[in-house]
From TrEMBL:
Its main location: cytoplasm. It is an enzyme of class 6 (ligase). The gene is hisS. Its EC number is 6.1.1.21. L-histidine binds at residues 82-84, 112, 126, 130, 258, 262-263. Residues 1-329 form the Aminoacyl-transfer RNA synthetases class-II family profile domain. GO terms for cellular component: cytoplasm. Keywords: Aminoacyl-tRNA synthetase, ATP-binding, Cytoplasm, Ligase, Nucleotide-binding, Protein biosynthesis. GO terms for molecular function: ATP binding; histidine-tRNA ligase activity. The keyword tRNA processing does not apply. This is Histidine--tRNA ligase.
């Protein structure tokens, strides 16, 4: 058999990579908690309609990136390409549409059939939040402030800029869409093939195109500002003053439209220049129509998702590997006492390991290799006297400690 490789666009998370990844998730979970968000975990696969309905069939995700398959029962299922649709589906199917607002945090893998490159994978991971059941601009501002706080806690806020836009309400977008159709129809021949299709089906999508020949035309396209209704403008003003109040700096960018169809009013991205073309690290917006798409009542909502791989790449330092205490029995008779002590250490919250084989010298070498802070040496003589030699490996110092006091001693020492 030829050697097995991970599937193109997927990665194993091991060692430093996993520690960076976990640090992003734990930091986001902690900050989301401060804002009153609870964690949900929804299934990795859903009925295909959950995504096809909600993301919009002209979005790149639905039109070409979904991992869909028929299961043995003949159902069409899809590996989730994003988290919001599943959370909205869960809100409805768990009967929570009358218990609003719901403030949801999630983290986990997402799947998209994309061309793999730096910062773009087929299995990638997101942290995300959804604030469902709040129509006020303060909700949008809080969700955005939480994203900014997470970037700050990760030490990467200074690497990013918040780009903010409004997509207006339905009436504003209808007028804007008409203007876009008129504009792009004039230059249709210069558009990419994908964008010529978008022009027919969803002209707003052209603004999100990554094709270079489209980018040039997009720069001069009509922008939403001129088409905002009074209501939409009031919301936009409210959002910007709430962000000021929360101390969140932003840059207005009328080109931000987001890749999925369900957004209205607020659209934003935290972008960095450090990741090349894959510069968006955390992005989202308001999606007041999505819960209704899932069969629930019309429910206002705002959310965002951040790419864990991209956030991990920006981290200045890798969180250090945890350091254990190593038990080193000297000779055959020390085995029983060593194992008892091992469990006592763990019961006291100390990370503790014992090598399964090897003489004392080998075991000490291993203690150093795994980065142990201390080695606990137990020989016949120690057992006879009811003590152990506790060696601090960084300092090279050694202390004789009563066996029944070793766990408490080391619990104190590793806590520093
Ligand atoms: P992009 O414009 O980069 O394709 P998107 O608009 O498709 O992003 P969203 O669906 O809003 O992205 O997802 C939110 C975040 O998830 C992105 O900003 C990015 O950080 C991350 N992300 C999206 N797709 C991928 C991917 N294929 N690989 C790694 N991270 C991704
Ligand atoms: Mg994409």
């Amino acid at each position: 058999m030829s050697s097995l490789q991970p599937v193109r666009g997927t990665h194993d998370l091991i060692g430093e990579t996993q520690r960076r990844h976990a640090h992003v998730v734990e930091t986001a979970r902690r900050i989301a908690g401060l804002y009153g968000f609870d964690e949900w975990a929804t299934p990795i696969f859903e009925d295909t309609r959950v995504f096809a309905r909600s993301l919009g069939d002209t979005s790149d995700v639905v039109s070409k990136e979904m991992y869909s398959f028929e299961d043995r029962g003949g159902e069409s299922l899809t590996l989730r390409p994003e988290g919001t649709a599943g959370v909205c589906r869960a809100l409805v199917t768990n009967g929570l549409t009358q218990s609003l607002p719901q403030k949801v945090f999630y983290a986990g893998p997402m799947f998209r059939y994309e061309r793999p490159q730096k910062g773009r994978y087929r299995q990638f991971h997101q942290i995300g939040v959804e604030l469902i059941g709040a129509a006020e601009p303060l909700a949008d501002a809080e969700a955005i402030a939480m994203g900014r706080d997470i970037l700050q806690a990760l030490g990467i806020a200074d690497e990013t800029v918040l780009e903010l836009n409004t997509l207006g309400d339905a009436e504003s977008r209808t007028a804007w869409r008409a203007a876009l159709v008129a504009y792009f129809t004039e230059v249709k021949d210069q558009l990419s093939e994908d964008s010529r299709t978008r022009l027919e089906r969803n002209p707003l999508r052209i603004l999100d195109s990554k094709a270079p020949q489209d980018r040039a035309l997009v720069a001069d396209a009509p922008m939403i500002g001129a088409f905002l209704t009074d209501d939409a403008r009031a919301f936009w003003d409210g959002l910007r003053s709430a962000l000021d109040l929360l101390g969140v700096p932003f840059r207005e960018n009328p080109g931000i439209v987001r890749g999925l169809d369900y957004y209205g009013h607020t659209a934003f991205e935290f972008v960095t220049e450090r990741l090349g073309a894959q510069g968006t690290v955390l992005a989202g917006g308001r999606y007041d129509g999505l819960v209704a798409e899932m069969g629930g009542p019309r429910t206002p909502a705002i959310g965002w998702a951040g790419g864990i791989e991209r956030l991990s790449m920006l981290l200045e330092a890798t969180p250090p590997a945890p350091r254990p205490v190593a038990i080193v029995p000297l000779g055959d008779t020390a085995g029983g006492v060593s194992v008892t002590l091992l469990q006592a250490l763990r019961a006291n919250g100390v990370r503790a390991e014992i090598a399964y084989r090897g003489n004392a010298k080998r075991r000490l070498e291993r203690a150093n290799r795994i980065g142990a802070t201390h080695a606990v040496l137990i020989g016949e003589d120690e057992i006879a006297r009811g003590v152990a030699q506790v060696k601090a490996l960084d300092e090279g110092s050694q202390a004789e400690i009563a066996l029944d006091a070793v766990a408490a001693y080391l619990a104190g020492a590793v806590r520093g």
